[in-house]
Specification:
By secondary structure, the chain is of the alpha+beta class. Helices cover about 35% and strands about 15% of the residues. The strands form 3 sheets. A 6-stranded antiparallel beta sheet has the order 2-1-10-9-8-7, with helices on both faces. Strands 3-4 form a two-stranded antiparallel sheet. It has a two-stranded antiparallel ribbon with strand order 5-6.
Length: about 300
């Protein structure tokens, strides 16, 4: 993996479509870290989702949630806004696999800035009619992940930001990162976390180490195994976008590989067979298709 990542960096030094940083962690150490811009925290977009998923896994480990816990059972005060009784059957598992049944991409960036969901994202989503039966169809949506975060916050009886700090950020030496919140002050599950590349990829390293960080177990190996394997078919012809776990994308080109993925190219690529994690951050002006083509060529030998 070292030579492959070196070749990727060399390629980017000659023809960079917008990558900001590339790093390789393998066999217990950081072997490479190349920054093309100033090394400061940046928005990691939907890579945030994998952090929220991990918090759900920790809450499950603690016995405060199960995959079959229903959204509405935790928020009985919203019963009066329900317009479709099937909403009451939506479980944590459905939300983690982007199969809530709402049938659209809700609370995405441009629409949130226009005021979608104000002033209460929970009421906005719980009050929607379903297009599909929960669990029937994968449709990527920020709202599903935000509802995961809301469930975790209610189940643990603590602000999601505080829980994330105690259970992940502080143990992994990440301080207290910036994180967008919803109008009620809940950390937004779908995006909004700001991290440096070497911080961002620590989650991938945690998963590579089966949930252990510096000798301390943060999340169970059972959760790591289930979150990082295919849980639902995304029905996409390109393997880069085929197969989804619990807020992680599959990488079928490599054995048991999977990734945390944020818009514009914020990647933690997790390769258990090689005992490696590759972290990549990129700019909003990045040609992400060109960047992914370079990644897939140098790391997988795949021409796209």
């Amino acid at each position: 993996m070292l030579e492959k990542v070196k070749n990727l960096i060399t390629d980017l030094e000659q023809d960079n479509p917008g990558a900001e940083a590339v790093a390789l962690y393998q066999n217990g150490e950081l072997l490479l870290s190349r920054h093309f811009v100033l090394d400061i925290p940046r928005l990691i977009y939907s890579h945030t989702k994998s952090y929220v998923s991990t918090l759900a896994g920790i809450a499950i480990d603690e016995g405060k949630l199960t995959l079959d816990t229903t959204l509405c059972s935790l928020f009985p005060e919203y019963d009066g806004v329900i317009t479709d009784r099937r909403v009451k059957t939506i479980t944590l598992r459905h939300l983690l696999t982007m199969s809530s049944g709402f049938g659209g991409a809700f609370l995405m960036g441009a629409n949130r800035r226009k005021g979608e969901g104000m002033p209460d994202y929970l009421a906005y989503m719980i009050g929607k009619p379903l297009i599909y039966t929960p669990g029937e169809k994968f449709i990527y949506s920020n709202a599903d992940t935000h509802l995961v975060g809301c469930m975790v916050q209610r189940a643990v009886g603590e602000l999601l930001l505080s829980y994330a700090y105690r259970k992940l950020f502080e143990p992994m030496g990440m301080g207290f990162p910036g994180w967008e919140t919803d109008p009620a002050g809940t950390a937004f599950g779908g995006t909004g976390l700001y991290l440096r590349n070497e911080e961002m990829m620590k989650l991938g390293i945690l998963y590579l180490q089966e949930g252990v960080w510096e000798g301390k177990r943060l999340v169970s190996p059972e959760w790591v195994r289930e979150a990082g394997r295919k849980q639902i078919d995304t029905a996409h012809p390109d393997p880069w976008n085929s197969g989804y776990g619990y807020q992680f994308w599959m990488i079928p080109q490599k054995e048991n590989a999977f990734r945390a993925d944020g818009a514009y190219g914020q990647f933690s690529l997790i390769f258990p067979a090689e005992n490696a994690v590759v972290g990549i951050q990129s700019s909003e002006t990045n040609d992400v298709n060109k960047l992914c083509a370079k990644i897939r060529w140098h790391l997988f030998g795949e021409r796209v």
